[in-house]
Amino acid sequence: MIEEKGIFSGGEFCGHASCPGCGEKIILRHILDVLGRKTIIVCPAGCAAVTDGIFPHSISPVPFMHTPFDAVASCAAGVRAGLEMSGRSEVTVMVWAGDGATFDIGMGALSAIAERNENILYICYDNEAYMNTGIQRSSATPFGSWTTTTPRGRLKSEPKKDINFILASHKIPYIATASPAFIDDLREKVNKAKEITGLRFLHVLSPCPPGWKSDPKDSITLARLAVECNVFPLFEIENGERIRLSYRSQSLPVTEYLDMQGRFRYLSEEETETIQSRTDEYYKTLNSLHESEQPLRMTMRKE
Amino acid sequence: MKKVVSGNEATSLAVKLSRAQVISAYPITPQTTISEKLSEICGSGELDARFVKVESEHSAMATLIGASSTGVRTFTATSAQGLALMHELLFWASGARLPIVMVDVNRAMAAPWTIWCDQTDSVAQRDTGWMQFYCWSNQEILDSVICSFKIAEKSSIPCMICYDGFFISHTNEPIDIPEQKQIDKFLPPRKAEYFLDIDNPQTFSGGTLPNYFMEIRYKLHDAFEKAQGVINDVYDGYNKLTGRSYEPIEPYYIDDADRVLITSGSAASTVFHTVNKMRKSGEKVGMLRIRQLRPFPEKELLYYIKPNIKYGALDRNLSPGTGGVFSQEIRSVLNRNGNGNRIHEFIAGLGGRDITTNNIEEIFKRIGNVEPDGINWVGLLK
Ligand code: SF4
User: Fold this and answer.
1) Its pTM surpasses 0.90
2) Fewer Cβ within 10 Å of end Cβ, chain B: N or C?
3) How far is CA A125 from its chain centroid?
4) How far off is chain A from B24, nearest CA to CA, in Å?
5) B249-377: what fold?
6) Complex ipTM value
7) CATH no. for residue A34?
8) Is A264 domain-assigned?
9) Contacts of B203 in chain A (CB under 8 A)
10) B152-168 pLDDT, tens digit each
11) Which of B63, B89, B196 has the CB atom closest to A77's CB atom?
12) Is residue A60 situated within a structural domain?
């Protein structure tokens, strides 16, 4: 049961410029609702930066610092250091970044704050491409997806970068995936992350109708199917060692998810099978790691 | 207190006296000994600051942008490739009006690789909206770093203090170090007007359409136009405290000179000694040492330009195809003000090549004997 008692219960957070059916604002609203007012948002270039509002407008109910595309992680580390030096350590520093800033251009700086275990809550809204510039592929774009830089005949041939396991190898205290179709789970994870000190990474799938070529009314359905088809499993990794599946999916065929999106329209049967078998394999691995006594990094090394 | 220190130690001492609160730096020769020292004194608690050990200079500047946005005092140091890597963020820092202070220990830009000195790294950042000060002594470094915090915070413009790698950074000189309580009085803790504050939530540096952007840039330009007044006030105050002060352009033996060489950085020391030497044999030579590239001291320069004196400008930096950057600035000031004077332009000392007293004597000879004729390369192997 969702109880919005927080900072948005009074109907704040209106007037943003996101497209109809955008996952990002739904996710952000719930995150901020859980985190409350003692939060500072640090946000790089991307849809969230634009749709928050154009100067002098801003919908953010908490301080909001825009940063260069490649610099969000380091800027956040600076905000954290500044807060500590001015006696405001209790404030949550939250990064709100898309997949381009997280998986690609900001990856070096993200790895650095992970290695230093900076006390930051880093949340990635992953819409799986550069949507703000008009749908170009990122390293978060899944195999077989159409984008303007992976056009028909040259669909993305590489799998999506596995950001969570890259970060797990940095042994940060908390990593979780989440979905706007599983709001209770999302809010629980934000709440849990809030209480942990060190770098916490939340990876949230963020449906994007213009980029996914889907119907705005289907965004939450798609977010749900991504989980139920195991394309985007919900799990947590603690200290880079302990992995826990947060939800047992129905393991529906991936076509249920793929067929509703124009970006997957050009997939051949063979490519669809590849997606199915890779998805099965990944979910099997996650399952075998679920609450395993064996530290995750040892298991990973063996594979 | 008097102490013999290197240029880089002078920086570290100044940062400590200024009570910087967040420091972030990445190792690069010849800057490294600054961050080593600062890391040490942050570690020991001698300085109550957080030292963020970043993975690149890009992140060093980004970290300070974040930290400065919370209202604290921030510092970094770099050189050459490191400064170039920060380029994007230098615009951001000035655009966001953050009073970050940075030392650039001047080092030539690769390729080919070199760790030796010239000013091409910092002059290439001329248009990023940072003030730039060029020092010629370790005492001046200490004083400039302290004063820059105050200048930056009063004008909301970031400041870069530049001095020559190795020639100054690694050379020991005796300097006078002010007492901590003197500096505490001169430079109280930063009081930011706008900062990331949960009790007064505001959005910083968001998307801006053509209806506002130009005004925001105009304000930065306007702040630069007013900055010289701020700089002068700060140095006046510092002078009362320590008896030391600096002018944007420092004259040497110019009252009766027939030839004057304009230069900056450690080259000015060599010119200084050459002027002394030539004066002994009766030659009427003098020097103008420029301390600022931004704001460029236009009024002050014009004050010193006289119709019956011949001028040369010596640059230890290069904008390929155009020449030295200080020369260009001087040329443009003279042209803009309808001044008939033309100047001799000299390029010397790139990539750490020595600039010798012989070089300077030749330069003065040339200024006296021929008409200005474009760019002269001094000490170039044939
Ligand atoms: S392009 Fe996609 S991510 Fe961006 S605002 Fe629109 S729906 Fe949201």
Assistant:
1) yes
2) C
3) 4
4) 9
5) Rossmann fold (3.40.50)
6) 0.97
7) 3.40.50.970
8) yes
9) 52-53, 55, 58, 60, 63-66
10) 999 999 999 999 999 99
11) B63
12) yes
